[in-house]
Write a structure and sequence with these properties.
Blueprint (H helix, E strand, L loop, with lengths): L12 H12 L1 H11 L5 H7 L4 H29 L1 H21 L3 H29 L5 H28 L12 H7 L2 H11 L6 H6 L3 H11 L2 H20 L14 H16 L2 H6 L1 H7 L4 H25 L5 H24 L2 E3 L2 H5 L3 H6 L7 E2 L2 H12 L4 H9 L1 H8 E2 L2 H16 L2 H12 L5 H29 L2 H21 L9 H8 L2
Antiparallel strand pairs: 1-2, 1-3
Amino acid sequence: MNSSGNPPVGAPSSSYVMLISLVVALGGFLMGFDSGVIGGVVEPVREGFALDDASVGWVVACLTLGATLAMAIAGPLADRYGRRPILMLTAALFTVSAAGSAWAPNADLLVIARVVGGFGVGGALLIAPMYIAEIAPPEQRGKLVSFNQLNIVLGFSASFFSNYFINGAISEDGAITNENAWRIMLGVETIPAALYLGLLFLVPRSPRWLASRGRTDEALAVLQRTSGAGAADEALRVIEESLAKAASASRARLGDLFNRRMVKVMAIGLGLGFFQQITGINAIFYYAPTIFEMSGADRDSALFQAIVVGLVNVGFTLIAMWLIDRAGRRPLLLVGTSLMAVALFTNAYSFQQATYTLTPEVAASLGESTQAALEGVTGQEFGDQRSFVWALEAAASPLPPEEGAALMGQAQDLAKKALSINGTLVLLAICLFIAGFAISLGPVMWAMFSEIFPLRVRGLAISVAGFFNSAISYLVQQAFPVGMGSLGPANVFAIFGTFAVLALLFTIFVVPETKGRSLEELEAELVG
């Protein structure tokens, strides 16, 4: 590509499409990094800003709140101004957010910085796969759209590596200390964000968007590199026919998405959006180090186990990219959601079998008066976290208010120290869950979002479906730390597992196969 964004003359079309798809999909990398990096700073931020469970949930979930709001407007903005300018805006937002998060002197400003990043996440999450689907030949579309999901998981994995190595570099007299390590973890993202913004200047506009604005010569020039010189004229003809049909109808409105003809595709889109998040993927990713600490790992080991999870995610996403245009979308969903259900119920079983026993050594570290109040709890075995925390509450009630509040402020930490669990089984179950998600709901949902909606309402429909998906993600992230404390890990994972079973049934009875078919063919079949 040259500096004007025009395709280079003589470049092979397949290489050119792959190159620009990879560049655009870097937005997914930033989304994954921004989302994953918070897992390594949850506990330092909790301690540094003295946050309770609900406040921790807000700091983590506010990114998704920003993404949810962005998804309400990103699609229409991309339809009006083009895909590339909106992607450039997301890159700028990522850069500002990373710098602001690293600087934030209090929790409120950290939240504001992360909400700004959330706007970048929402825009990149919607527009990158939309753009790629509009330049990709039908036979390569699933694989190329999956580049976005691959980059998301690479971003997650990179954030886990970054957190682990920054944590390992902490020293009392070095540049990285316990006090600033979490800020460095959040600030690292400014580097890939700035790179993404620069590379987007080399990307051409979407040929479908250009054709919709009457810029057919520019659209044809792009299609000659993406579809090949021989197929470009036919591809442009099909696009123009589709646009002509859309032009003969009224402008897309929200109500158009819920008329009788759109019921089927909206049910598929909203259903996939719901199940992708309600099964707990972002709760598990965002809180992965915390979950591993709850299963008995120290902080360094928990961060390393998060790396293992990230590598599993990358590996199985690559497998999904290889299979999605070979095996099809439905088989991946059927296998993946089945694995997710098994893994989640295995984790529920692991935590159900766990025991909580406060040892005399841990009790002795809490001070004489608190140790005395805990005599009835020390040495007693509890079958779940809720019972253990309730016992702590009962022991804290006779204490002076300040001492009682201090004791309950350490409840989560004490629960981790009191826990006896098969940590290896927890790690294996989480890896199995991630593998199932990475070959199914992760890449398939976004691929199908870019395929099933008619061109005339595609931007609006993807915004609505993405908004709904992001809203569910926000609710799960916000509720997860509170649910882990009140319901206990076993019940939370059992709830996620139940939704995974429902996702499997939804796939069996509702989701169609879209493999190897043009966007126009799918529109004719699903909408008419």
